[in-house]
Amino acid sequence: MVTHGYTRRGVLTTGLGAAAGSLLTSGLAADPARAARSATDNPLTLWYGKPAAAWLEALPVGCGRLGAMVFGGVATERLQLNEDSIWAGGPHNYDSPEALAALPQIRQLVWEDKWQAAQNLADQKFLGRPSEQAPYQVLGDLALTFPGSAEFTEYRRELDLTRAVTTVTYVRDGVRHTREVFASNPDQVIVVRHTADKPGAVTFQAAFSSAQSSTTAAAGKATIALDGVSGDTQGMQGEVRFQALARAEAKGGTVRADGGTLIVEGADEVTLLISMGSSYRSFKDVGGDPAQVAERHLGRASRRPYEVLLRKHVRDYQRLFGRVAIDLGTSAAVALPTDERIARKQLDTDPQLAALYFQYGRYLLISSSRSPGYAANLQGVWNDSLTPAWESKYTININCEMNYWPAAPANLTECMEPLFDLIKDLAESGARTARTQYGAGGWVAHHNTDGWRGTAPVDFAFYGVWPTGGAWLCLTLWEHYLYTGDERRLREHFPLIKGSVEFFLDTLQTDPRTGYLVTNPSHSPEVGHHEDGGENVSICAGPTMDMQILRDLFGAFEEASTILRLAEDMRERARQARARLVPTQVGHLGQIQEWQEDYRGDAALSRSRHISHLWGLFPSHQIDPRLTPDLATAARRTLELRGEAGAGWSLAWKINFWARLLDAPEAYKRLSNLLLPARTAPNMFDLHPPFQIDGNFGGTSGITEMLLQSHGDQVHLLPALPAAWPAGSFSGLRARGGFEIDLEWSGGAVLRGKICSDLGRKLTLRTAKDVTVTEHGRPVKGERPEPGVIVFNTRRGGVYDVAVSA
Ligand code: FUC
């Protein structure tokens, strides 16, 4: 039951009911040592009975800028290391100088439905130079080699999500060894501590290695270094220089660096600090001194005892992680190793696995997207390759945005800061692309970007000529405002939104056939609408997704400009343009039309994993079962026609779609499928396949959308609660309008909850059955326009208790 005995936004101190209470007391207690007491008691743990044999079994730690995959080996421990600015190549302007001259002809060919000719011309003239962007790359490995027999017993490896610490423990040659690894945001180092239950029993050698062009050396009495430079790519020379340092401090025994090898002998316990730096200062400047960065962080951290480093790390992490608790019920399955739980394929009898997945998504976001540091890319920050899938870049026609879907509702808006930094960069490089390729003002970004903030179309015209990526990103700035009401940040972000609007006011074209204002050239991401001259063509004018995105962009601009009293001259132009966009239309199969025209045949029957024309259903709310029932019916039909093909991220998107359609069984089915071994690796990384982190974040968002929605000016409690979670609770989820919500339910219905109002806005609260709302025990005065809805004014800082009506 929800009680008043816990502090807002802080560490929860008392129970939300039996099951939730055990989660909280086992994990989120202020005392890290107590929390560590017994990991078996802590269901927010990923754990395994054997070392990782493959990368997808290793456990990720990260502090935003740095990441490591921890294998938990006994004879050899492998730490695969990442630093988030190591991109192949160097600062580069991708814009095509030939694009602008070709643009009128491409547009004309599109008006004439000469798609193949249009797409070919775009391939020749309109793509970036080079036409592929640079990969994000691995830094290297640190291997720890321990002498001893091949035998070991009592092995356990775990990742405690409540503290963001991995631990491996085993008995070898009669000695119990324990090794903890974490990545500290406050200290900007990765910390490894190895202890043994017998004095003098810790002996190992540590050495760096890397597939990058690199060298290793001693860098002091107890320190080794790896120096390297990122790889060449696409005719661009690798320019990001980096350094990693590892320093050991031992209690008892000896430590020395011998060349590139660190030798620890006969120690009682060892703390190993790993620091990394690069020469990347910005997308335009790689002139930094990596050694200075690595040395600065290492020097500072070396002066702190292990206990202090751990305490600071846990406190910093829990300040974010501890804001949200969730309990979806529990079963005997929680006692099984995590990989076995996934292999069972039975989410129905293991509801806690969904809660673990939800919290793992929050863990991954905190670990891969923190300041200082860059935005979470396709693999967050974790990548073991020089040539990762899709270059581990930022794909902004869905994947990058999906990474940030859970940030605001799951109470982690701070993790959006690196994304906002990325958007600022893109507004700069994208202004050049707007000028060079379109002769337009403002800024534009197409479907991909990289460390060099490429904004020109890339890959092939089929995939790349899509000018709406930057506009979608701008809407994350607006969402931040909707959740937080932070006007100061909105003012800071406003020029980015305005710049995107300027680009579209300059480039939108009146379709000579329909009179609508449309994008041209563009496409519905990665979906062909015709075979033309033997080629699959996607190029078109005014695809539905563009229109939906621009409707929200212009709307956000108009509202922001009104709130801030800025850019009044542009406001009316944006309003007029918005009214001339193509509306979302229903096609001949009863589906949401993906394009302006209701193409027949294969186009309407595409089984693509991209479902871009439902952007208006989620993340937007232009399609809503209550406000636009006909479009909602067409959205449902669209999902049925599209089928189940797709990547992890596509399944994750479908959870969110079905939740927005208020269809709990369908949403839950997609969640169950996402948690199958085909889509969830043993370490719970999402599988496209291969690993791509967006599905983790989209899944976390989907679970949130099943429990709480806040759009269309109302807050809806339990909008799509599946039968598998009849009783449960959450606390700390956020709703648009500045509300923070705790809730407990039973028998599939709201029992009681608590709503804190940050901004003092009017609240429309929707539940399946009527609830009463009280403040300090007194009923609030509210209107009840329909059953299950109560509308009332809140006070800034007010706390409202919600209870099922007697
Ligand atoms: C788009 C998607 C792929 C993948 C890639 C990173 O191209 O179609 O499925 O997610 O981005």
TrEMBL record:
Span of domain Glycosyl hydrolase family 95 catalytic: 306-707
Residue span, Glycosyl hydrolase family 95 N-terminal domain: 46-282
Cross-referenced InterPro entries: AFCA-like_C (IPR049053), Alpha-L-fucosidase (IPR016518), GH95_cat (IPR054363), GH95_N_dom (IPR027414), TAT_signal (IPR006311)
Entry GO MF terms: hydrolase activity
Domain called Alpha fucosidase A-like C-terminal: residue spans: 709-802
Keyword Hydrolase: yes
Matching Pfam families: Glyco_hyd_65N_2, Glyco_hydro_95_C, Glyco_hydro_95_cat
Hydrolase as UniProt keyword: yes
Key words, A-Z: Hydrolase
Protein name per UniProt: Glycoside hydrolase N-terminal domain-containing protein
